[in-house]
Write a structure and sequence with these properties.
This protein is an alpha+beta fold. The protein has helices spanning about 65-70, 90-95, 95-105, 110-124; strands spanning about 1-5, 15-20, 25-30, 40-45, 60, 85. The protein has one domain (about 1-124). Bound molecules: zinc ion (ZN).
């Protein structure tokens, strides 16, 4: 269910692990210094919230196992502490993020449908 993916460099050199739950795979990065004081923590890979075309990994902190479950349901996709490898975080995006949030409303139906698919996958 858990395996390390030592060939992956998507976390900028940090160790990458995968959790497989049914048909879904959660990608996690092991951060060895999350707060500048040497504390260890995990980030969860989520879709880039800033650009739907962006294929770079974006990361959000995993505070608990609950976060893992929420990541599977897509619940973390709009968190404001997501940082994309290319786009940075919401603080870096500023005005652009506001524009993007407005355009994302158009996709609300597709999003809802995606959550349905996730939910169905989890039930199987
Ligand atoms: Zn991005």
């Amino acid at each position: 269910m858990w395996r390390w993916n030592d060939d992956s460099d998507i976390a900028g050199g940090d160790r990458v692990g995968e959790i497989r739950l049914g048909q879904q795979v959660l990608t996690l990065a092991l951060r060895l210094d999350v707060d500048g004081e040497g504390d260890i923590g995990f980030d969860i890979a989520v879709p880039c919230p800033f650009d739907p075309e962006c294929s770079s990994p974006a990361w959000t902190p995993a505070y608990s196992v609950t976060c893992l479950h929420r990541a599977l349901t897509g619940d973390l996709d709009y968190r404001d502490d997501i940082v994309c490898t290319v786009h940075g975080g919401y603080d870096d995006i500023g005005q652009e993020a506001d524009d993007h949030a407005a355009s994302m409303d158009d996709d609300a139906d597709g999003r809802a449908d995606l959550e349905e698919q996730y939910a169905a996958a989890v039930r199987e």
